[in-house]
Structures are given as C-alpha cells and as structure tokens.
Design brief:
The model has no long low-confidence stretch (mean pLDDT 88). Helix content is 49%, strand content 19%. With 270 residues, it is of the alpha+beta class. It has helices spanning 6-32, 41-48, 52-65, 82-92, 96-111, 154-161, 167-174, 190-203, 240-246, 248-265; strands at 39-40, 68-70, 76-79, 114-121, 124-131, 147-149, 206-209, 216-224, 230-239. It contains ten helices and nine strands. It starts with 5 loop residues before the first helix and ends in a 5-residue tail after the last helix. Residues 19-81 form the HTH iclR-type domain.
C-alpha cells in the first residue's frame, strides 16, 4: 500500500507550479520579443491569455533576474540585452555540420542527387559537406575541403549576391586574370553578372547552367544567419539532361525549403 504524505503532496504541487511559472515566463519573453519599444502590461496579459496580476508577478521575477526592464512608456515592459548575450553563447556552441547534416541528408533522399554545403573563405567557396547521389551514376569532381571560384558556380554566385553592393565589381577588378570561360555558358562580363546577382537576390535562388562543366547543372539557395547574413549555401548538382527531364520546379522547392530550415536552426527570423 502506497502512502502519500502531506509533505510529498506539497512537493508535487510546488514542482507543478514551478513548471507552469517557467513556461509562462518564457511565453512572456517570446511575446515581448515582438515589441522592441515595450508592451503595456494589459496588452501583454491579453496576448498571453493570462490575468494581469499573474503577468505582473511573472514580470517582476523576470525583472529581478535581469531579463525584463520597464520601458519608457508608463506601465510597459521590454526585454534587456541579457538575452542577446545568452543567444550569442548558444550560437557559438553550434556545430554547423551537426545542425545542417540531417536536413542535407533529407534533401539527398528527396532528390536523389548530389548535395553540397559550403561556406565562403575570402574570395573562394569552401566545400564543407557533400553527399553523393542515391540514384544515377554521375559523381561530381567536387570534394570536401575543395576551394572553388565564386563566379562560375551556383553557390559562389549566392555568396556574391548577398555581399556588399561593390563586392562584385571589386572582385572582377582584382580577379581579372582568373576569370575565364570554362564553357560557353560561363559568365565573364561584369554587367551580365550584376543582372544575374540581382535575380538571385529577388528569387533567393541561383543556378549553374553548365557554367563550370558541360553536362552538369546546379541549383543553390542561401542560408541566412541570425544577422541576416549569408554564411552558408546549399545546392543540388545533377546532369543537365536529367534536370530537363524531371523539371527544375520540384528541385528548386526542395533546395529552398532545406536552406530555410537550416537558416531557422541557426537563428534566422524572416
């Protein structure tokens, strides 16, 4: 026979109340994140679907802990910069491959094609992850750790598109000796590249139309970080003949979806 003492019952109730207070406090923090200039207590209570006395009590606890402070407008509250410090510590602990790999593996299974994941290192792409195709026999020459030019690949053009406005012009000026036509489709003229980069920013999508290697096409999308900077790019490579056969629409949707999921995991909010 199990006997529940008054002390056990009290401890259980305290744990339940503590959990409720924690969840409600976190809910208030999330809501206040939408009001950088502060939110009136009454409106916050309405949004959180709590009574004002409960919200006031929770805000006092958050204030005492340094997460919330009164806003200039009377009766309003806003978040403090303490949360920025915590967020930066969380971001610094992220291993991007650990975060991105499950999503990239899913893209590999969905498309059956080669999946690439890269970052930018100075004026080159650095390939940091690659998955071989699950269907077909084509294997690209790219390998993990490889450096590739920016101007003649889908991922490279993604990085160029989201750099500062003068980046492409400066790149063309300082890399004039290496910009060459690998195929008849390689973009080697700056005005045409600027048009291409504008389309990439508009569509959040880049294409390699056999610009580095005949018979091979690539679809890439940007991965944004918490500061809305493009730190990584994800792409799918496949034979051009197969791309024409299956159509680009489904592949584009899959690449963009995976890029967006990785972006959200590393703190991006659209």
């Amino acid at each position: 026979m199990n006997l529940i003492t008054a002390e056990d019952d009290k401890t259980k109730k305290e744990k339940t109340l503590g959990s409720q207070s924690l969840f409600r406090g976190l809910q208030l923090i999330e809501l206040l994140g939408n009001f950088p200039n502060g939110c009136p207590l009454a409106h916050l209570a309405e949004l959180a679907e709590m009574n004002k006395s409960t919200v006031h009590r929770l805000l006092q606890g958050l204030h005492a802990s340094g997460y919330v402070t009164p806003a200039p407008s009377p009766g309003s509250y806003r978040l403090t910069t303490k949360l920025i410090s915590i967020g930066q510590k969380a971001l610094s602990s992220l291993n991007i491959i650990h975060v991105a790999a499950p999503h990239l593996e899913q893209l590999n299974l969905i498309t059956g094609e080669t999946v690439n994941f890269s970052t930018r290192e100075d004026d080159h792409i650095l390939l940091i992850y690659k998955l071989e195709p699950t269907t077909g026999m084509m294997r690209t020459r790219a390998y993990i750790g490889q450096h590739m030019p920016l101007y003649c690949s889908a991922m490279g053009k993604v990085f160029m598109a989201y750099e500062k406005s003068q980046f492409a012009a400066n790149y063309w000026l300082t890399h004039r000796d290496i910009i060459e036509a690998f195929t008849r489709n390689t973009i080697t003229e700056l005005p045409k590249m600027l048009e291409e980069l504008e389309d990439i920013r508009r569509l959040k999508l880049a294409m390699d139309r056999e610009e580095k290697e005949l018979g091979v096409s690539c679809i890439a999308a940007p991965v944004f970080d918490i500061h809305h900077n493009v730190k990584y790019s994800v792409s799918v490579s496949l034979p051009t003949a197969k791309l024409k056969h299956v159509g680009a629409k489904a592949l584009i949707s899959a690449v963009q979806d995976i890029a967006q999921r990785i972006s959200h995991e590393i703190g991006f909010v659209s």
